[in-house]
Amino acid sequence: MNSESSLPAAFWQGVAEFNQGEYYACHDTLEELWMEATEPNKTFYQGILQLSVSLYHLHNENLRGAAILLGESIKRLQNYEPNYEGVEVDRLLEESAEMLSFLQHTDPETIFQHPENWQLPRIATQ
């Protein structure tokens, strides 16, 4: 949790879940925040939610769903660069763009053969 951030503790719980690879739990945690939020937090939450769901899809071998939501997440989070409320958005976007490129340029047959080699985005804080 970032002491200089005005985001609620539930957001930071979702960040911890995301970084532990608990993407479905992150979605559940952040969805309620997103539904009740106003701008500018609403779109920020939505971008993080979409990123989380994209990685959930990836782990369930839904390549198309993963790529679509990863792209949508990147679009939403670009307006929050370089940092937002203690989150290093520029770093998150760089890692997400690298993952999207990997998904788009790697033979789908080989993507799921070695998931231990995936360079998954992480939410870094200041």
Strand segment count: 0
The chain-level mean pLDDT equals 94
CATH fold description = Hyaluronidase domain-like
Low-confidence parts, pLDDT < 50 over ≥5 residues?
none
The helix-and-strand class reads mainly alpha
Helix content: 55-70%
How many separate domains make up the residues? Answer: 1
How do the SSEs run, as a string of H and E?
HHHHHH
Task: Characterize the largest beta sheet: strand count, sense, and whether it forms a barrel.
Answer: none
Kindly report how far apart the N and C termini lie.
10 Å
Rg computed from alpha carbons, rounded to a whole number of angstroms: 14 Å
Shape: globular
Percentage of residues in DSSP E strands = under 5%
Question: Mind explaining what this structure looks like?
Answer:
The structure is a single chain. The chain is mainly alpha-helical. The chain has one domain: Hyaluronidase domain-like (Orthogonal Bundle), CATH 1.10.3450. The chain is 63% helix and 0% strand. It is built from six helices and no strands. The chain has helices at residues 9-19, 23-36, 41-59, 63-77, 89-105, 108-111. Helix 1 (9-19) runs antiparallel to helix 2 (23-36), helix 3 runs antiparallel to helix 4 (63-77) and helix 4 packs antiparallel against helix 5. The longest helix has 19 residues, at 41-59. It is globular and about 45 Å long. The chain starts with 8 loop residues before the first helix and ends in a 15-residue tail after the last helix.
